[in-house]
Specification:
Chain lengths: 285, 259
C-alpha cells in the first residue's frame, strides 16, 4: 500500500463504511444460510415424494408424481382456467371484505362510543359471534339459494365478527387521559373522533381488518367446496370427485400462495402504518 | 320485594333486540306475509325440536359429533404443544421446520379436506385427522410464542440449579408458557368445533352427526330441522367456549392478580 492511498483507507475505516459493508454482507449471508436450512425439509419431502412415486410405493391415483402436479399447474395457467377461477374467488373475497368490514366498523364504533347502543346490541352480538360461520350456511342456502348472494353473505358474516370485536376493543382501550386532554381543549365531538379516537384505535382497527381477511379466506374455501360452480374451492372439490389428485394438489398450492401473499402484504401494510403513526406522534412531540 | 328489586336493577335492554326479532318472526309467519315454507313459524321449529329429541338418532348424532370433536381436539392439542415446545426450545428445529410450518399455516384449512378425504375416505378417521389439524395450528403457534417469551433470567436460574432438560421443561418452561398455551387451547377448541361441523357438511356419509343431520335436512328442505340444528350448533359452541373460559381462569388462578 503506498502513501497516497493510506489516508483514503483510513478514512474508509474510520467512517465506518467498511464495517457497515461487512455487517450487511454478514447479515446477508446469515439470511441466505437460514433460507437454505429452511429449504432442507421441503426439498426432503419433495425427494421422498419423487422416490415413492418412482418405486411405486403408493398408487398414482393416491399420490400423483410431482412433475404431473407441476404440469397441471402450467396447463391450467396457460388455458386461463386458473386465472378465471382465481378472479372469481378473489372478487368474492373483495366484496365480502368490503361489506363485512363496513358493517363491522359501524357496529364496533357504535357499541364502543355509545353506552345505549352497547346495552342494546352487544349481548346479542356476543351470542351471534359464538355461532361458527359454517353453521349459518345451510340456512343461508335456503334463503339465498346457492348463487353469488350465498357466498357473499357467508363470507361477510365471517368478516363482521373479528372486525367488530377488534374495533370495539381498540376504542375502549384508548387511555382515558387522551380523551381528558381532548376535553380540556374543548374538542367538538367530530374533532375527538377524527383527531383522538381514530388515530389511537387505528392499529387495532387494522389488525381486526387483517383477521377479517384471513377469516374470509377460510370461509371462502369452505363455501366454494360446499356449493359452487366456480372458484378455487370448486376446482378442488370437482377434481376430487374425478379422482384427479394432481388438480387437488394444484388447488392446495394456489390457496397456499394466495394465503402467503395476503398475509405478507397485510403485515407489510401494518408495519408501514405503525411507522407512519410513530412519525406522526414524533412530530407532535 | 327482593325479587322485584333484583329484576328492576338489572339491565334488561339486551333483551329488546332478540324479543323484537322473535315477535317479528312470529307475526309475519302467523299472518302469512311470507312464504312459510321458506320462513317457518317458530312453533314448527319447536315441534321439530321435540320430535328430534324424542326420536332416537338426533341426540346420538350430537354425541357422535362431540366425540369426533373431542378426539380431534385431544390429538391436535397434544401434537401442537409438543411441536410448539420443541420449536421454541431448539434453534435448529426452528430453523429447519419453522419456515415450512409458517408457509403451510397459510393454507386455508378446508383446502386440506379434499386431500384428506381422498386418502382416508369420508369416515371418522378422515374427520378426526382434519379436526386435529385444525386444532394443531393455533395450539402450536401459541405454545411456541409462550415458550419463546420465557425470560432468559429464569432459564439461567434453572441452569444454576442444575435442572435437567426434562426438569426445566416441566417445572419452568411449560408453567411459564401456560397462559399462551391455554390461549392456544381455547382457540383450538373453537376451531375444532367449526371443523367438526364443516367436515360433517362436506364429507357426507351414512354416519350420524349433528352436521350430517342438518345437511340432510337441507336436502329434504326441512327448514325447521335446519334452524333447530343451527341453534344446537351455536349452543354447543357457546357451551364449549364457556367451559374453556372457566377452566382457563381456574388454571391461571395460581398467578394471582398480576396482569
Amino acid at each position: 500500500m503506498n502513501d497516497a492511498t493510506r489516508p483514503v483507507v483510513h478514512g474508509l475505516v474510520n467512517s465506518g463504511i467498511l464495517q457497515r459493508l461487512f455487517l450487511t454482507l454478514g447479515g446477508f449471508s446469515i439470511r441466505v444460510s437460514h433460507a437454505a436450512v429452511g429449504l432442507i425439509l421441503p426439498l426432503g419431502v419433495l425427494g421422498l415424494w419423487q422416490f415413492a412415486v418412482i418405486h411405486e410405493w403408493i398408487a398414482v391415483q393416491l399420490l400423483p408424481p410431482p412433475e404431473l402436479v407441476w404440469q397441471s399447474l402450467q396447463d391450467l395457467w396457460e388455458s386461463g382456467d386458473l386465472t378465471h377461477h382465481l378472479s372469481v374467488s378473489l372478487s368474492r373475497i373483495g366484496w365480502s371484505v368490503l361489506i363485512g368490514s363496513s358493517i363491522g366498523w359501524l357496529l364496533g364504533f357504535s357499541v364502543a362510543l355509545s353506552k345505549t347502543a352497547r346495552a342494546y346490541l352487544y349481548p346479542s352480538f356476543e351470542v351471534f359471534s359464538q355461532f361458527p360461520v359454517v353453521g349459518w350456511i345451510p340456512l343461508l342456502i335456503i334463503f339465498l339459494g346457492i348463487d353469488e348472494g350465498l357466498k357473499i353473505a357467508a363470507i361477510s358474516i365471517a368478516v363482521v365478527v373479528p372486525v367488530t370485536v377488534a374495533t370495539y376493543k381498540g376504542i375502549s382501550n384508548i387511555p382515558r387521559n387522551l380523551l381528558e386532554v381532548a376535553q380540556v381543549y374543548r374538542f367538538t365531538r367530530s374533532q375527538v373522533l377524527l383527531r383522538v379516537v381514530l388515530p389511537a384505535a387505528l392499529p387495532s382497527l387494522f389488525s381486526g381488518f387483517r383477521q377479517g381477511i384471513m377469516q374470509a379466506w377460510l370461509a371462502l374455501v369452505f363455501v366454494e367446496l360446499l356449493a359452487s360452480s366456480e372458484g378455487v374451492g370448486y376446482l378442488m372439490g370437482y377434481a376430487r370427485l374425478l379422482m384427479q389428485l394432481d388438480l387437488v394438489f394444484v388447488g392446495v398450492i394456489v390457496i397456499g400462495v394466495i394465503g402467503v401473499t395476503l398475509d405478507l402484504s397485510l403485515s407489510f401494510l401494518e408495519s408501514r402504518l405503525q411507522s407512519w403513526l410513530h412519525t406522526v406522534h414524533g412530530e407532535a412531540k | 320485594m327482593n325479587l322485584i328489586h333484583l329484576i328492576r336493577n338489572r339491565d334488561w335492554r339486551w333483551a329488546v333486540l332478540p324479543l323484537t326479532l322473535l315477535t317479528v318472526w312470529y307475526v309475519v309467519t302467523t299472518l302469512g306475509w311470507v312464504n312459510t315454507k321458506l320462513i317457518v313459524p317458530p312453533e314448527k321449529v319447536y315441534q321439530a325440536a321435540v320430535k328430534a329429541i324424542s326420536r332416537d338418532g338426533f341426540m346420538e348424532g350430537v354425541e357422535a359429533s362431540l366425540m369426533r370433536d373431542m378426539s380431534g381436539f385431544v390429538i391436535g392439542s397434544f401434537a401442537g404443544i409438543v411441536f410448539g415446545v420443541l420449536l421454541g426450545l431448539s434453534r435448529w428445529t426452528e430453523r429447519i421446520v419453522g419456515p415450512t410450518f409458517n408457509t403451510l399455516k397459510h393454507i386455508s384449512l378446508f383446502a386440506w379436506l379434499p386431500l384428506i378425504s381422498t386418502w382416508l375416505g369420508t369416515g371418522d378417521s378422515a374427520k378426526i385427522v382434519f379436526i386435529s389439524l385444525t386444532t394443531f395450528y393455533p395450539v402450536a403457534i401459541n405454545t411456541f410464542d409462550g415458550v419463546r417469551s420465557v425470560p432468559r433470567t429464569q432459564l439461567e436460574v434453572a441452569r444454576v440449579y442444575a435442572f435437567t432438560r426434562w426438569q426445566s421443561i416441566t417445572r419452568l418452561i411449560v408453567p411459564a408458557a401456560s397462559p399462551q398455551i391455554l390461549t392456544g387451547l381455547h382457540l383450538g377448541l373453537i376451531y375444532a368445533w367449526m371443523a367438526t361441523i364443516g367436515a360433517e357438511f362436506l364429507l357426507v356419509t351414512a354416519d350420524t352427526g349433528l352436521g350430517d343431520a342438518v345437511i340432510k335436512g337441507r336436502a329434504a328442505f326441512n327448514v325447521e330441522l335446519i334452524v333447530f340444528g343451527m341453534l344446537i350448533i351455536g349452543l354447543v359452541g357457546a357451551l364449549l367456549n364457556f367451559i374453556a373460559t372457566r377452566i382457563e381462569s381456574h388454571l391461571l388462578a395460581w398467578r394471582g392478580d398480576r396482569t
